[in-house]
Each structure stands twice: as structure tokens, then as C-alpha cells.
Amino acid sequence: MNVISKIATNPVARGLSVLGDRWTILIMRDVFLGRHRFNEFRAHSGIMRGTLSNRLEFLISEGFLRKQQYQSKPPRYEYRLTEKGLSLYPWALMLWQWESEWAPTDKAIPTLLVHKGKYSHPLNPQCICRHCNKNLHFDDVERVKVSEGAEINNPVSLPDSWGGQRRTRAKVPQDVDVSLTHVVDIIGDRWTTLVLAGSFVGLTRYDDFLNNLGIATNILADRLKVLVEMGIFSRREYRVNPSRMEYRLTEKGKSLYPLTITLRQWVLDYMPPVAHPYKLLHTTCGHDLEVDIVCGVCRKKPQVDRVKFHLPQAVTS
């Protein structure tokens, strides 16, 4: 079985088949920041009206948002988080944290997350193992094969939107909120995410990506180039004649792992189980990998109503 089939049953791929879309992520960003109305979404994301309507309908149908009327004549609606939508908050915090650490200067988030309480303090979200409470690091996780039969049971089809040309490097309109757009440039394009997922399961060489992931050569070359330009991969020649390249995760690339595993945990906790031939083992403690997001200061799980975003009036390009 090739890697793409294994990734198709992977919890991360299942989560991204629902949430791995640029506009979907930016709409959820806006809702978590307290924006609830159609025109607010348009103003802050720069999304086209038809695309916005489509994504809002999708998020409602998937149970992440609910539509609530706030004006009768003419009818006007707000979009509010459901319990399922709120369950994505740990992932949203990890997206925010990664962006704060790694976004280039022109997209950096000039703000703090504040964990409110008797003694309020800055919130630095941390992904930890549920069993040993140690912070999660890419190099501390091992893939362990658990079943031959699981490889062919209940595969999740990769959606049509995994193909096509890259859409995430278009110029951002002026006066829109650019927070999270750096990380969205990576996970908001499913071919890029597929290449990244391949690197997480050990692929490093161009031919390995090509043969295992079923990507057209021009698309693969573009995504590898983008990931190198963004500092996610380093590129090195391992053979001179003929020239052959390999692509390895940088520290910036490895730092995407905790937020990726946070999405995996959400899928395991909130979506129906699907057989997968591998499990993840946290080598630090020897347990199957399960994670939680906690405050780096008090080590408590942040709740939506206990976190304040010190966001300026405009975080724009």
C-alpha cells in the first residue's frame, strides 16, 4: 500500500478533508475573534461573496456554526459557534501560537493571548502528552505498525479539492486581517499539506514523494519549491550525477507537528473511528500518543471565555 492510501485513513487527513481549506480556516478565525456577521467576514478576510456563502453553508451543514437571526426587516443573520465548533478551540490556539512564532514580519501577529483569572498572565499554548504531561516534540514520536488488515479497511476518500493549481499565493487585498495567513498558506492547500504529511511519515526524496503521493510532476515541483521558500523544508543534493535532491524538515517545519497532532486528537475525540495501520507512540513515556493543549504558565486547559486576544483594530497588510 502506498503512502497516499495510508494518509487517506490518517486522522490528520480526515480533519483536513473538512477543515483544510483557506477560507474555512479564516472564517473560523474570525468567529473565534468575535466576528459573526456576513459583512464582517468579507471585510476582514477579503473573501468573495459567493465563496463566503458557500463556506458558511458548509460550516453549518458540518455542525460547526449555527445561523441566528438578529434582525427581521430585512432579515439579517449572525453565525455562532456550536459545541462542535467550540471543540476546535485548542487547534485554533495552536494555529495562533505557531503564527506568532514563525510568521514573517509583514504577517506577524502583534498581540498577546492573555489567560484571564485571579492572576492574569500571557498565554503560551503548549501541546502536551495526556499521560506524562510533557511538551510534545516531533522527534519524540514513533510510528508503530499495528495491523496489516487495517490498511484496506474504511479508507477515507481524498476530496476533489486535493488537486488543481495552487490558490494560496495570490496577493492579499489591502486592509484585510492577515493574521494566520502564513500558516494558512501551508495547511489551506491540500497538495501542500499532503507533501508535508509525507515528510512526517519519512519521505525526503523527490522520487519518493512522486511515486507515493500520486502528484503530477508540475504540482509536486511547485509545492516543494514553496515549502523550501517558506522555510519548512531544507533542500540538499544527495547525488551529483545525475543530480538528485532531498527535502528535510527544518526546525520551522518540525514546529508544525504539535498543531498537526492537535487536529489529529480532535478527529480521534470527535469523529467516528476509522481503521488505520499505524499508531503513534510517545517515546518519552511509552504510551499511545494523546495530547491536550494547556497554558504554558499555569498548565491549565484554556477555555474560550478565559482567553483574551489583545488584537489591534487592524492587523492588515
TrEMBL record:
Q: Please verify whether the record's keywords include DNA-binding.
A: yes
**Top-level taxon:** Bacteria
Instruction: Give the matching SUPFAM superfamilies.
Output: Winged helix' DNA-binding domain
Q: Which UniProt keywords apply?
A: DNA-binding, Transcription, Transcription regulation
Checking Pfam families in the record gives: HxlR (PF01638)
Domain HTH hxlR-type per the UniProt entry, residue ranges: 10-107, 172-275
GO terms of molecular function: DNA binding
Iron among keywords: no
Output the Gene3D superfamilies linked to this UniProt entry: Winged helix-like DNA-binding domain superfamily/Winged helix DNA-binding domain (1.10.10.10)
**PANTHER family, alphabetically?**
TRANSCRIPTIONAL REGULATOR, MARR FAMILY (PTHR33204), TRANSCRIPTIONAL REGULATORY PROTEIN (PTHR33204:SF36)
Q: What is this protein called?
A: HTH hxlR-type domain-containing protein
From which organism does this entry originate? Lacimicrobium alkaliphilum
